[in-house]
């Protein structure tokens, strides 16, 4: 498992101007991160150990034995082997990746456009901002069933589209056709989380110091030029964090996929979480699920650690 | 005992009931079967029950030896009363004794589907007590129902099993979960308590419709009782009598298809009729039997099990799947082909949509639980167009196998309660007794009549009870009487049943959405089923499968 | 056209576009809200009719949630009165508690990392890794751990787990806010006689008020909306609102009306909070005091 090892002697304490303060600072620093580290220990250590343990066995609660006796069903890496050679698992990972990339890209683009829109004044902007955030405040379990009702073949969405589309009768099989089902899931995620992107990016835009923006404006730079050369570079860290965090979360998407189509039709909208849900909740393949979860976790870890590099590099130079 | 009302019930079971004294006078070893036949029972299994009920509304004043227990105080309550010497009576007396000896909790915690809690807690008829109240008054033991979402019971139960959680004294489960949960140690083996308290499950008058076969289907796993079935989710085929009995429709049908329009007896007929009645531009769908995930697979099963005489099994006795076969293909092709005669959204419709549409007179045929007729009543928002009055129930259509028409229904979900082995052991017995009580002919009949919950008809006694008849329809009670004895289990009483079902369900969805050909689909199911079996252990699984065949109908066609 | 007029037209254009976007984004919310006021017939799917506006406005769905049965409204069947209040209460306590816990541990950790690089260079990533496990898989070991610690089906247990799973967000978001604050600020405070902690509390913390508000809101929403964790880690005693909502079925079917009503109640709290802190929501990241 790719847990990056914590090296205690790596304490790069940034240079402080006053030396006696350095020690006090280090002490305070250690104390301040202590609760977090405790939490980490408590909540990561046991689950990870248990999951690793189970993943190396074929234990299932339907066997009637306690989980710590799982060694009686020891099997080394057969669960892992089964996972990475499972067409279903690999397709699901690919599918989830597609959903993640599509959803997060759309959320980013839309969020950015909206942030640019809201960067300048217009009447009722404050009110509108609050309302723009409402979608992400709707409980995902609720947005699931609301969209289920909206996306029926003769439901409101198709009715509205029929009004707008020249020629009248739009009947998109949102929840029935394999491709459209995938689109529906992406749509719901975009609906729910674009406001978050919008908020973060807007904050980033507004964080650019006004005087610099004004100065550039006085010098004749157009809005677009200022955006490109001033705003976006300064927003790089924020953009990166937003993308990484949102991608991580989107990869674990469950509610929309399950409530709209149960991962269907068939497996057309089955994400990793849906697959794991089927195996862990509608079946009792807990050890297989453990192996799959570890594979997923490692994969995300590797990708995320790559993606984070520019951010960390930025950190070092502080 | 009032000897005036001695009416022996006729075949269709009117409300007349036998007085105990005269019954006993008549009953004898040889007389018994004749009398039972007259009762409309019919199973030849041993009768442990003879229960009489007063036949008059007038109070049974000053009678004799046995006091009547059970609900009272309203017209018809006597039908649900019982003496101490009966399955429900023994349950009450046993519970009282256990309470007296300190072996019963203050509050018995019972898991139950939210949609079924009303069956126990809502007074019915209006002004009467509720089932829960009667138990609490007679035993002094309170009941607390914990809502357990039907889609979550497997997960919650399995988690409770792995944690040895004894918070609930009685857990609720669907029929397909019994194998896994018994193996996980959650469900207590009820054999000893069944022997001690003698439930009425096999009684010809009070027992499950279909007798021992049904008992084995619902309550048994690996030859032992682990659960108590309190539901009857058999699939009834429903057709619109206003369409099927309309002379013009009949004429047009005959002209087009060259045979008479009847209520469908074979799947080929059903296909023609679905096509004939599929008029979406007029707001009428041909056949809306469900096709969605979790709901559609049972409609494959109903087409599959009747492809052989007496029935087509899912596996052979060595646990080789029989589903990838000409029979399986016939069933699957029919399922896929007839989907177009339903809603465009057939792949997302679950029973709420189906019932809503039926209530709008939006379909000509469908397949549903018997409780549909309970909800299709004038004044119900589910039945704005009085569809209830034109709903005609029959057995599922079947197939001609040689010269024999084979017709089987099937069932799925089907709530059962089980004793939580991890609950305090001194409360196991009283928990079981609550289960015996609610599953008794008298009490369960009262339960199923209640429109406050969706528990369906499953007990013989319910078929002839006037309250049930009013709640459902006479046609429904008659039909259920035919359907249940001739039904085949869906996948249950087997370890890993949920896995087999998931594999079937997901692959069927692929076939229905055109992502996989029927042939490939069946091959995929076969290979996945084999993988599941191998993981569990083929020999053991085969043994349990063979044991579960005791729940299969042996008669190819019990439709009137 | 004068520059001023151009600016004006641009502003109106922005306003119109903003409205259009809002309408599209809020349509599902509109649907949810209207469903809460529709009687049974109007939200039953497949009646063939779509009711864009409730014809027979009723508050029966709401009253049904709190034990009052009205005939012919939420459910025609004689059905058991339900009470959503306990589950709402549990959600409130667990979410607020979890948010506070996450903030406490997270802000502290974020500052430690940002200012002192405490815990080592790998700590931030390790904290992020907390969220890389698919929750479905990790909830099962947590279930066992909670059982052993007797935290199953308790509010404390929920608060702890909610705090723990949202803690990474607090760390990462607050760290970036702290990173924006130059060290000179804290150092100046120390020169003025503060302890390092005092410098943190008095000089630095007030400057990230806005970021704190935004982070708090975000974390609260996550906890408030949680379904899976509550589903597994609670039972009858501490059921939360989202779980309660998912179980709203009578024998007549899923009670979309009552579910929508509860959803409306649930969404109003975060909306209320965001109205209260709207000042901080966006402006929070611009610190008037410091120019770079």
Strand-helix topology:
The complex is a heterotrimer of chains A (318), B (560) and C (292).
Chain A: H1 19-55, H2 78-84, H3 87-119, H4 125-132, H5 134-137, H6 140-150, H7 156-164, H8 178-207, H9 210-218, H10 223-251, H11 255-261, H12 272-281, H13 286-316
Helix pairs in contact in A: 1-13, 3-8, 3-10, 6-11, 8-10, 8-11, 10-13, 12-13
Chain B: H1 20-26, H2 29-39, H3 87-100, E1 107-112, H4 114-121, H5 131-139, E2 142-147, H6 153-163, E3 170-174, H7 178-183, H8 191-197, H9 212-219, E4 220-221, E5 224-225, E6 228-229, E7 235-240, H10 241-244, H11 247-257, H12 267-277, E8 285-287, H13 297-304, H14 326-338, H15 351-359, E9 363-369, H16 372-375, E10 391-394, E11 399-401, E12 404-406, E13 410-411, E14 415-419, H17 428-438, H18 441-449, H19 466-471, H20 474-483, E15 488-489, H21 497-512, H22 518-536, H23 538-548
Parallel strand pairs in B: 1-2, 8-9, 13-15
Antiparallel strand pairs in B: 3-14, 4-5, 6-14, 7-9, 7-10, 11-12
Helix pairs in contact in B: 3-17, 13-14, 21-22
Chain C: H1 3-36, H2 40-43, H3 60-65, H4 85-116, H5 123-129, H6 135-148, H7 155-179, H8 183-191, H9 196-204, H10 209-225, H11 228-233, H12 241-246, E1 249-250, E2 253-254, H13 256-276, H14 278-283
Please tell me what the overall shape of chain A is.
flat
Task: Profile the largest sheet of chain C.
Answer: 2 strands, antiparallel
* Number of domains as seen in the coordinates of chain C: 2
What would CATH call the architecture of the domain at 93-283 in chain A? Orthogonal Bundle
* Termini gap of chain A: 31 Å
- Give me the CATH superfamily of the largest domain in chain C: MetI-like
User: Could you give the order of the helices and strands of chain C?
Assistant: HHHHHHHHHHHHEEHH
The helix/strand series of chain A, from N terminus to C terminus, equals HHHHHHHHHHHHH
Say how many strands of chain C there are: 2
């Amino acid at each position: 498992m790719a847990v990056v090892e914590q090296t205690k002697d790596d304490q790069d304490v940034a240079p402080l101007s006053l030396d006696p303060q350095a020690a006090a600072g280090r002490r305070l620093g250690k104390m301040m991160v202590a609760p977090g580290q405790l939490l980490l220990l408590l909540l990561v250590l046991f689950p990870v150990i248990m999951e690793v343990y189970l993943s190396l066995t074929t234990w299932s609660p339907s066997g009637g034995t306690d989980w710590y006796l799982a060694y009686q069903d020891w099997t080394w890496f057969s669960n892992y082997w089964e996972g990475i050679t499972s067409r279903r698992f690999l397709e699901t990972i690919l599918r989830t990746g597609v959903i993640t990339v599509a959803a997060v890209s759309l959320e980013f683009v839309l969020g950015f456009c909206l942030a640019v829109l809201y960067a300048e004044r217009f009447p009722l902007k404050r009110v509108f901002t609050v309302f723009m955030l409402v979608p992400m405040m709707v409980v995902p379990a609720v947005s699931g069933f609301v969209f289920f009702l909206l996306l029926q073949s003769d439901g409101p969405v198709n009715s509205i589209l029929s009004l707008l589309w020249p020629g009248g009768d739009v009947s998109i099989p949102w929840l029935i056709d394999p491709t459209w089902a995938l689109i529906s899931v992406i749509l719901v995620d975009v609906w729910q989380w674009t406001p978050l992107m919008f908020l973060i990016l807007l904050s980033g835009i507004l964080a650019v110091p006004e005087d610099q923006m004004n100065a550039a404006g006085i010098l004749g730079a157009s809005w677009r030029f200022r955006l490109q050369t001033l705003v976006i570079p300064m927003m790089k860290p924020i953009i990166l964090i937003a993308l990484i965090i949102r991608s991580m979360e989107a990869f674990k998407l469950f509610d929309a996929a399950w409530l709209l189509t149960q991962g269907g039709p068939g497996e057309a909208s089955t994400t990793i979480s849906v697959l794991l849900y089927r195996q862990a909740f509608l079946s009792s393949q807990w050890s297989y699920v453990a192996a799959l979860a570890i594979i997923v976790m490692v994969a995300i870890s590797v990708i995320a650690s790559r993606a984070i590099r520019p951010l960390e590099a930025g950190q070092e130079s502080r | 005992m009032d000897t005036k009302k001695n009416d022996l019930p006729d075949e269709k079971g009117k409300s007349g009931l036998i007085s105990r004294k005269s019954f006993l006078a008549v009953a004898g070893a040889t007389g018994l079967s004749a009398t039972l036949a007259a009762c409309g029972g019919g199973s030849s299994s041993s009768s442990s029950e003879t229960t009489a009920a007063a036949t008059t509304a007038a109070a049974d004043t000053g009678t004799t030896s046995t006091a009547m227990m059970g609900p009272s105080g309203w017209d018809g309550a006597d039908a649900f009363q019982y003496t101490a010497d009966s399955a429900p009576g023994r349950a009450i007396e046993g519970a009282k004794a256990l309470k007296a000896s300190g072996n019963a909790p203050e509050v018995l915690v019972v898991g139950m589907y939210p949609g079924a809690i009303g069956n126990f807690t809502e007074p019915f008829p209006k002004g009467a007590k509720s089932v829960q109240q009667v138990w609490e008054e007679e035993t002094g033991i309170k009941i607390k129902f914990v809502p357990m979402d039907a889609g979550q019971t497997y997960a919650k139960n399995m988690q409770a099993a792995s944690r040895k959680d004894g918070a609930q004294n009685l857990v609720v489960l669907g029929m397909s979960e019994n194998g896994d949960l018994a193996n996980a140690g959650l469900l207590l083996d009820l054999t000893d308590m069944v022997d001690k308290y003698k439930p009425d499950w096999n009684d010809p008058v009070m027992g499950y419709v279909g007798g021992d076969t049904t008992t084995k289907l619902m309550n048994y796993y690996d030859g032992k009782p682990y659960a108590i079935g309190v539901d009857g989710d058999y699939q009834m085929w429903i057709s619109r009598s206003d369409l099927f009995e309309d002379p013009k429709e009949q004429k047009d049908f005959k002209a087009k298809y060259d045979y008479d329009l009847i209520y469908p007896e074979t799947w080929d007929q059903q296909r023609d009729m679905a096509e004939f009645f599929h008029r979406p531009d007029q707001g009428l769908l041909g056949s809306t039997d469900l096709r969605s995930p979790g709901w559609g697979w049972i409609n494959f099963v109903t087409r599959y099990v009747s492809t052989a005489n007496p029935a087509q099994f899912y596996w052979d006795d060595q646990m080789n799947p029989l589903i990838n076969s000409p029979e399986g293909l016939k069933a699957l092709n029919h399922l896929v082909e007839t989907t177009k005669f339903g809603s465009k959204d057939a792949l997302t419709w679950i029973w709420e949509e189906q019932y809503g549409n039926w209530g709008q007179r939006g379909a000509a045929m469908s397949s549903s639980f018997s409780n549909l007729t309970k909800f299709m009543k004038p004044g119900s928002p589910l039945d704005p167009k009085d569809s209830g009055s034109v709903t005609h129930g029959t057995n599922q259509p079947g197939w001609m196998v040689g010269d024999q028409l084979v017709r089987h229904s099937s069932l799925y979900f089907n709530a059962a309660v089980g004793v939580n082995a991890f609950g305090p052991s001194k409360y196991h017995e009283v928990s079981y007794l609550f289960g015996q009580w609610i599953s008794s002919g008298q009490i369960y009949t009262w339960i199923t009549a209640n429109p406050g919950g969706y528990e369906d008809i499953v007990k013989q006694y319910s078929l002839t009870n006037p309250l049930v008849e009013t709640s459902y329809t006479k046609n429904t009670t008659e039909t259920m009487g035919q359907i249940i004895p001739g039904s085949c289990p869906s996948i249950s009483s087997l370890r890993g049943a949920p896995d087999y079902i998931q594999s079937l369900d997901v692959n069927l969805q692929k076939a229905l959405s055109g992502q996989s050909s029927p042939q490939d689909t069946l091959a995929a199911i076969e290979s996945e089923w084999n993988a599941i079996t191998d993981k569990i252990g083929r020999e053991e699984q085969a043994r349990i499968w063979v044991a579960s065949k005791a729940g299969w109908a042996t008669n190819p066609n019990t439709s009137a | 056209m004068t520059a001023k007029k151009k600016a004006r037209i641009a502003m109106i254009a922005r306003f119109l576009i903003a409205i259009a976007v809002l309408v599209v984004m809020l349509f599902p919310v509109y649907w949810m809200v209207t469903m809460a006021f529709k009687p049974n017939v109007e939200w039953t799917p497949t009646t063939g009719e779509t009711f864009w506006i409730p014809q027979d406005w009723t508050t029966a769905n709401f009253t049904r949630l709190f034990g009052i049965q009205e005939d012919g409204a939420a459910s025609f069947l004689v059905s058991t009165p339900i009470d959503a209040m306990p589950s709402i209460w549990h959600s409130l306590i667990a979410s607020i508690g979890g948010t506070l816990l996450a903030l406490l541990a997270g802000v502290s950790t974020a500052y430690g990392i940002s200012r002192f690089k405490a815990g080592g260079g790998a700590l931030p990533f390790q904290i992020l890794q907390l969220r890389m496990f698919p929750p479905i898989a990790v909830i099962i070991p947590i279930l066992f751990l909670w059982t052993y610690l007797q935290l199953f089906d308790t509010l404390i247990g929920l608060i702890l787990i909610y705090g723990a799973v949202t803690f990474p967000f607090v760390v990462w978001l607050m760290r970036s806010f702290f990173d924006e604050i130059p060290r000179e600020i804290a150092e100046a405070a120390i020169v003025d006689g503060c302890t390092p902690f005092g410098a943190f509390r008095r000089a630095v913390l007030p400057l990230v008020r806005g970021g704190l508000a935004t982070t708090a809101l975000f974390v609260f929403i996550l906890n408030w909306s949680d379904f899976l964790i509550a589903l597994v880690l609670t039972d009858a005693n501490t059921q939360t609102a989202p779980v309660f909502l998912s179980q709203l079925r009578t024998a007549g079917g899923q009670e979309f009306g009552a579910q929508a009503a509860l959803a409306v109640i649930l969404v109003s709290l975060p909306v209320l909070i965001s109205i209260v802190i709207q000042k901080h929501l966006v402006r929070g990241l611009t610190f008037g005091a410091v120019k770079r």
